[in-house]
Amino acid sequence: MLTLILLLVAVVGLLAVMRREAGALPALAVLAVTGLASLLLASTLLGLLLLAGAIAVAVAGLPALRGKWLTPRLFALFKKVSPKVSDTERVALEAGSVAWDGELFTGKPNWQALLDAKDDGLSDEERAFIDNQCSVAAGMCNAWEIAKERADLPQELWDHLKQERYFGMIIPKAYGGLGFSAKAQSLVLQKLSVNETLMVTVGVPNSLGPGELLLKYGTDEQKNHYLPRLADGREIPCFGLTGPRAGSDATSLPDAGVVCKQTIDGKEVLGVRLNFEKRWITLAPIATVVGLAFRLFDPEKLLGDEEDRGITLALIPRDTAGMEIGRRHHPIGSPFLNGPIKGKDVFVPLDTIIGGEAMIGQGWRMLVECLSVGRCITLPSGATGTARYAIGWSGGFARIRRQFNVPVAEMEGIQEPLARMTALGYIAQAAVYQTANTIDRGEKPAVPSAILKSQLTEFQRVILGDAMDIHGGKAVTLGPRNYLAIGYSANPVAITVEGANIMTRNLMIFGQGAIRCHPYVLEELAARDADDVKAFDKAFFGHAGLIFGNAARAFTQGLGLGRPAVPFQGEAKRYAQEIARLSAGFGLCADAAMASLGSTLKQREMLSARLGDVLANLYLASMVIKQWHEGDKVEGEAALFHYSCQWLLGRAEQALDELFDNLPSRALAGALRLAVMPRGKRFKRPHDDLARAIAQAVSRDSALRTKLLANTWSADDGSQPNFLARYNALLATQERAEALYRTVNKAFAKGELPAVALHPEQRVEAALEAGLISADDAAFMREREARVLELLTVDDFEYDAFVTDKSKVLRHHAA
């Protein structure tokens, strides 16, 4: 018995030391004391084993001992097996900053660090712009007219966007812009997401493009000339990066510029002769100034000794000789302006290079540094705004659409997708707002930008699919009354651009995070490159301590022991503790995958994707908790909070489970499964009760619906119809209508009304005549049924309305 007690004491002591990453000395003390006690009082064999362990810890763990023989050998091995980092990868790794994503890699996230990112809210000017100017812009949009009749925004909307300086949200007031915060930019785009063409048109100039590049890298002359003109719309920018052979792998672009001299107006000018072919360039057909990425060469060495000067960015006026611009692509589902740009022997002076001669060859760094911010805002905000509108439309439609004498919102087959899309929208709102808040506090979140772009646009895909299912025939028939289907068909654009989701999920989230966010990997690589054995010793054994610490934390917390302290109470406390548990498991699995697969992990994209999925879901769940903790709660929100957290943490556990199933080393996989999930998976699909509660709230005039639909165009005050406002108006009187429906339908079922009264309108009149309802109630229901019927009606057209070549029309019944 004493032997068993001493063994348990040793194990518990070691776990405690490991959890705290206390170092070699405490571990040595635990092993030595329990070993000696066992040797003297209990089992000689156990004592010898524990003392042997103490010797091993001393030799490997004490710097004075390991530095003489172990560290040099490990350093030599590390140099051989560690992955090589290319120059382009290094630039990407060094771009941006690390915040909460780094905490999740530690296995012991400091929640207070997340809460310290205080939210200062919006300025009065920003709030007024969202409430007023954005409502005006949204009120000018009719999806059918824009997509099918104009293939463009109406002129009065273009005039409004320029006059109100929408294209200058990121440009400081000193240059004539709006100087908005990242949060305000996000909320503007969310409100404008009532129409995807409008959102893209405003979003792109405020994301990756000439404006941001000029702000960060432009010369004073470039800033003073271009920024005021970009802010007020005198200049419309586009940015030419991608081409036929350079999409996600933007560093492989074949477009080239050669430094040369050319005589212009009798003067010899030093510049660049460009040949390029770009595709998929948003706003290119109407752009007045083109940002261009190309590879610069200096064969005559006019600028220095280097011939290959690297990726460089320039800003080229539209009317430059040799540039072909103006044709359009036809993006799926949406007519946002997008097209090709070609250039043959286009000569531009050297001062067109953004940032001047000093920034030659810095183009890739410039791009990835800008992308880490822009990618956090534009498409994630568009997806979040789309979710707001889709939730509002779908909840309203499900309540007024009646089948089998009840609203379809009462049917569980509708409640399930309605709850799911509401939860995804809730998660998106929290993630995009809280990440924008970190940007406003000076962060440049590189890894979170990849998480938000890929995850939220995938959410958008699910949300729009669910909305289509709920609407049924209403949504599959195109026309001016269909507010949903055009955006649904355009969704693949968001999935594809700014880093295709497949690439982002499989390569970027974990591939970049494993080095950039890890507490020690970057230091180890830096020590290797500097051939600094002392720096390597510090980083490597710190890393080893982290591995042991995560193993201990994951295992003990997986058993329900030693839950970490978190600065939350109530509903949020448990979920924060579960995130900490899964963070420790994720950190352990990340290190195990990197150690066992080495540089081949780059090619094991499905494994990398699953690790990225764990990180992504933990990040999103953390943002939901922070938003819940800091925000004002409304009735019904608790169900949505629980659903969202359970769904995200269930996905994180599922990704870990699939990782264990597919790791090449089965022994390692088994050990990791035991350490990380000793009691199996904790989270299942959210309970049906939660789904029912969410669907009921979002399909009624509730506080929760109002909160979710904040920052939408919800007033019927534009030149175009606002379907969301009309649903809201009907839901505001739903209780009265439901009582009257019950009265009338009950009377009909009992035979108290004529059997031929099949339409609701007929039953209302019959009930009035029978004295079952008052004249006031009848008037109310007449007006209501007229509104309902208008919202349920779909459009029809002339027989040959969709035929572009009328000579090809088939007249099947000529008579």
Automatic annotation (TrEMBL):
Domain Acyl-CoA dehydrogenase/oxidase C-terminal span(s) in chain numbering: 361-506
Pathway annotation: Lipid metabolism; fatty acid beta-oxidation
Cofactors demanded by this protein: FAD
Enzyme class, spelled out: oxidoreductase
Matching InterPro entries: Acyl-CoA_dehydrogenase, Acyl-CoA_Oxase/DH_mid-dom, Acyl-CoA_Oxase/DH_mid-dom_sf, AcylCo_DH-like_C, AcylCo_DH/oxidase_C, AcylCoA_DH/ox_N, AcylCoA_DH/ox_N_sf, AcylCoA_DH/oxidase_NM_dom_sf
Superkingdom per UniProt: Bacteria
Membrane-crossing residue ranges in chain numbering: 39-65
Listed CDD domains: ACAD
Acyl-CoA dehydrogenase C-terminal bacterial-type domain segment(s): 515-797
Protein name as annotated: Acyl-coenzyme A dehydrogenase
Lineage: Bacteria, Pseudomonadati, Pseudomonadota, Gammaproteobacteria, Oceanospirillales
